[in-house]
Amino acid sequence: MPGQTAGWDRLRLRLRSAAPPLYLPAPRPAGSPAADCEVCRGPVRPGFGRCYQCHRHALLGPALLADAVVPISYAIKGTPFADHLWRYKSAPPSAPAPPSAPASAPAPASSPASAPAPAPSPASAPALASSPAPASTSARASASVPTPALVPTPASAGASVLALLLAFLSDHGRCVWQRAGMPPPDRLAVVPTGAGRPGPHPLLRLVSPYLCLPGCSLVLRPGRQGRDLDLDRFQVLARPAGASVLLLDDTWVSGASAQSAAAALKLAGARHVAVVVLGRHVNPDDAASAPLLAGLAAARYDPSACAVHPPPNGTNRR
Fold first, then answer.
1. Which helix (H) or strand (E) holds 81?
2. Residue of 243, 241, 249, 253 lying closest to 203 (CA atoms)
3. What span, in angstroms and rounded, lies between the C-alpha atoms of 200 and 193?
4. Does the pLDDT of residue 205 top 60, yes or no?
5. Other CB atoms within 10 Å distance of the CB of residue 92
6. CA distances from 283 to 73, 75, 78, 288 (A)
7. Where are the alpha helices (DSSP H) in 125-209?
8. Which strands form 187-190's sheet, in the order they lie side by side?
């Protein structure tokens, strides 16, 4: 419908004008060496297809890992986007939703598509709360840390995070489901914080009003924090028998928490788990990140760009 399309267009425009710059992962080139992990898209050593952590996960939890891991952007330490992903969690539980946001929206992407480019979900887009425009950043991610943006409030950071996630799911949800080999999700879960934060995860509080999917709660078992895959780290409170689960994570560092959550969901009966990550953490001080960072540049949100499918013109940004 025209009004709904206009709402999504306004949301994308806001992302391109007021949200912090992103570092968008491109599809991995087929049949040629890549500077990123085939699972999480993080840095890899030359000649290897997977990073050390993802290789270890595959050894510890075969058949229980996520069917797809799709990062929306890299979260490079010291950049405004990485700061937003840290800062939004400080918003109080009673922080208001973005103004003019609908009470709810349909689940993203009604069905998988054979073509890689998905159509927007038929829902009106929430309006973004105002947030400070980021200062200019270095054109290359491998250069020095970009000039910091004006310090965002937790609420404005949360509005940017929410807008990015909703726009991505509308524009590329079907890419994710297709990569995971699953139908559109019928359950929603969020990777719990490793610190055992009480109450609902801040990301779950943000997205719940807009994604009409039954929740599948994950709870960190006492004393199970860690940096390695742990099949018993999380307890699933509602058994997702035969479900296709959309598992959200704000920041992927080692992936241990996200893959432990995926394993817990599958052990509880989920058939498919697709992980959508807002930011894949990269530390520019780590020498192993240099090849990956050399191919990245700061960019605004691009509805045609996705870590799964090639751009419409057939070119590759690498």
1. helix 80-87
2. 249
3. 10
4. yes
5. 8
6. 14, 9, 9, 9
7. 154-180, 202-207
8. 68-76, 272-282, 244-252, 187-190
**DSSP letters of 44-77?**
--TT-SS-HHHHHHHHHSTTTS-SEEEEEEEEET
Instruction: Give the predicted TM-score (pTM) of the model.
Output: 0.82
Residue 278 CA to residue 309 CA, distance in Å, equals: 17
**Look-up: residue for tokens 């949100």?**
301
pLDDT value at residue 197: 66
Sign, CA dihedral 82-280-300-208, equals negative
Region of residue 213 (left: phi > 0; alpha: psi -120 to 50; beta: else): beta
Q: How far apart are CA 165 and CA 207, in angstroms?
A: 8
**Strand-pair partners of 138:** none
- pLDDT tens per residue across span 142-200: 333 333 346 788 999 999 999 999 999 999 999 999 999 999 999 999 999 866 566 78
Structure tokens that stand for 131 in this block: 């947030």
SS3 at position 296: coil
Q: For the chain, percent helix, then strand, then coil, each to nearest 5?
A: 30, 15, 60
Average pLDDT in the chain:
81
Section 278-296 average pLDDT: 95
* Nearest alpha-carbon partner for 246 in 100, 94, 67: 67
Locus of tokens 């191919």: 295
Q: How many CA atoms lie within 13 A of 294 on its CB side?
A: 8
